[in-house]
Amino acid sequence: MTFEERYQKFVKYLILAISIFTVVLHIGEFTFMPMVSIKFYAYHVMVALVLIFLYFPLDKKKPDASKAFHIVCHIIDWIIIGVVIAASLYVIINFDTFIVDTSYGNVNNKYIFWYGILITLVVLESARRTLGWTLPIIAVITIIYALLIHKIPGLFGGRKLNPGRIVIALFSNAGLYSTPTATCANNVFLFLMFAAFLNASGADRIFQDFAIALAGRKRGGPAKMAVLGSALFGTISGSAVANVVSTGSFTIPLMKRNGYPAASAGAIEAVASTGGQIMPPIMGAAAFVMADIAGIPYATICLGAIIPALMYYVCLFKMVDLEAVRYDIKGLDESEIPDIKKSLKRSLKLFIPIIVMLVLLLGFKMTPMVSAIYSTLAIVICGVLDRGERMTFKNIIDGCVKSGRSLCIVLSACATAGIIVGIFSITGVGLKFSNLIVQMGGSSLVFSLILSLIVCVILGMGLPTTASYIVCATVIAPALVQLGLPIFPAHLFLLFFASLACITPPVATASYAAAGIAKENPMKTGWVAFKVGITGFILPFAFVFNTEYLHFGFDFTTLVTLLSGLVVSYALAISIQGYVEKKINIFWRVVYLILGAVAITPYKVASLCAIAVFIALFVFHTITGKKSNKISAAIV
């Protein structure tokens, strides 16, 4: 066995031990071993950063380099890991002194000053290794801005800041240990753990079989299956790219084989996977950050997002259906369809934990953290009791390892975003930018929303959804609230567009991942995804101007919004695709678009009239289209 092989074996076992410790640490914090928050955040950052530098070593992209090169890289990685452990243990052991000195701005504490500089550099390097250059560069620019703020004239200028105060802002509960990292430690990891254990129990395969059994026989079956499968998997994943890679590796080739063009196959999967970030009950990591930043209970966010998320997927499902009409794509062969009863029976062990989570969250009003812990326990119990595909001890260990692996990218994004938030807090640039948006918008909410949309999408092209949302929530949300928008719609608006950046050209990460699987031009796939997912860009404006779309209950209001949401989704799909059961002319496409626009208004009478006219028109075109198709088939 070579030196490198022995080293990698050692790293493998070390990762295993740290991952198990990480799971026990987070479960213990909310059950049998609570600790002071700053200590817990320090432990959280320490284990996550150590895992990052073990999973993403300096020599990762050069496996064939010389032994000397590998040794030098390993030494550098371990020096960095040593810095992480030393800085974190300083906070843990001296947390009383740390809290007092950072709270009162004691710039004379040299330990905080030097550890603060070192841990900031380490966090920036962790983001570079896991996320690329964009987020670290933005963080560095904000730090330089804080150092030079006294030399900047006008609105964005300010008084000179002591370097010690800047470091304290970075290395404190205003920066590194602020809301982004706190949310990652308190909420996000436990839901990552829940998703990891679901995957370890075979969730992805079972979701695929269940989706095929439900939709495989229908026209365009593989695409509909992709929409259903990605929606189901998205509820436990929350990452668009991870969703594409997980489900797309199966669904995209199947769609292509069934007759969908490569660009359409990739685009459908990208749009379906992106919707997972806004799909209750779990949504993406950014939703947990939103709960903390906006001060809105997570259960309220889940309930409010139900109708917009359903509209997103209903429109996508109809777009896919009409794409099948356009290309005359049939369903899968009967031999490829799993038995629905067997699929349903297999899926019970996956749906039971999700039901447990919903009952605990919404019924018993438990915290998201405790709900996630008990739901994960439900996965293990259901898996162990399943005699067909029993969950073994190895599966449980795999769940722990996958939990730790999932934490790496989220923590690097949250910790780096925390650095940016720290600079925003000490310089007041967030408030200045917010005032600028209000001034540029001329007190016009519509214009300010468009400006916000542009900023969200541009940031989202280079940043993970969570980091993009954090920056936007810090600098843009106050401006929207100042213009009279309620807090919930304002933050959900930003969350939607931070998510949709994944399918927005020219840098559409989910579309690019899907294009790689589809073996198609990424830009072409990106533009098709933009068209297929167009409803996602309209929905945020809908619930901003008609907040009833964020209401979900057993009442007349919910019934009307559900009906109007269904009409809007169908009307958009029909007007964009130009098909019902056969091609329709431009006049009818415009009529459907107008009906959708009227149905989305907050005026119930107008909305109900539009719904009635749409139903009549849709039934008419469906019947005449099917008759026309039968006549054409008979002639042929």
Write the layout of secondary structure elements.
Layout: H1 3-29, H2 37-55, H3 67-93, H4 95-103, H5 110-131, H6 134-148, H7 163-170, H8 179-200, H9 203-215, H10 221-237, H11 240-258, H12 262-274, H13 285-294, H14 298-327, H15 340-363, H16 368-385, H17 393-427, H18 429-441, H19 445-462, H20 465-475, H21 477-482, H22 487-500, H23 509-518, H24 522-532, H25 534-545, H26 556-577, H27 586-599, H28 604-635
Structure in words:
The protein is mainly alpha-helical and 636 residues long. The protein is built from 28 helices and no strands. The chain is globular.
Mean of pLDDT: 85
Strand content: under 5%
Number of helices: 28
Overall outline = globular
Low-pLDDT ranges: none
Main β-sheet, in a few words?
none
Briefly say what this structure is:
The protein has 636 residues and is mostly helical.
